[in-house]
Specification:
single chain
Length: 114
């Protein structure tokens, strides 16, 4: 099942935590947990020499003060229910004492440039 951006944002909003697209909003810098996501890869799907849809790959960064944060687990559970099997990396940022979990997700978007 291909995930649309609208569905993805609905999932993120359902978590009830701050979410920013592109860059971290200043008011969320020290708020945990929080999510920042941004696109970094576009794959155009064409048919009959026309571009109809785009698969956009996003990085999703989840910041938390604890490992395996329940909101992160809820996010992953919801993605799994929709057939999205993310490979999640984790790191601990010693200087600021938080956990950063991150993964990629492919989103189907229409008319990204048109």
């Amino acid at each position: 099942m291909q995930l649309t951006k609208e569905d993805f944002i609905e999932i993120l909003d359902s978590l009830g935590i701050p979410v920013s697209e592109g860059i971290n909003k200043d008011e969320y810098v020290n708020v945990y947990p929080r999510i920042v996501f941004w696109d970094y890869y576009w794959e155009f799907i064409s048919a009959s020499n026309n571009i109809y849809e785009t698969v956009v790959t996003y990085q999703v960064s989840f910041f938390s003060k604890e490992p395996r944060n329940p909101k992160l687990l809820s996010l992953i559970k919801e993605l799994l229910k929709r057939g999205i099997f993310a490979s999640i990396s984790h790191e601990y940022i010693e200087e600021d004492k938080y956990f950063h979990s991150f993964f990629k997700v492919d989103i189907l978007e229409n008319g990204i440039l048109f």
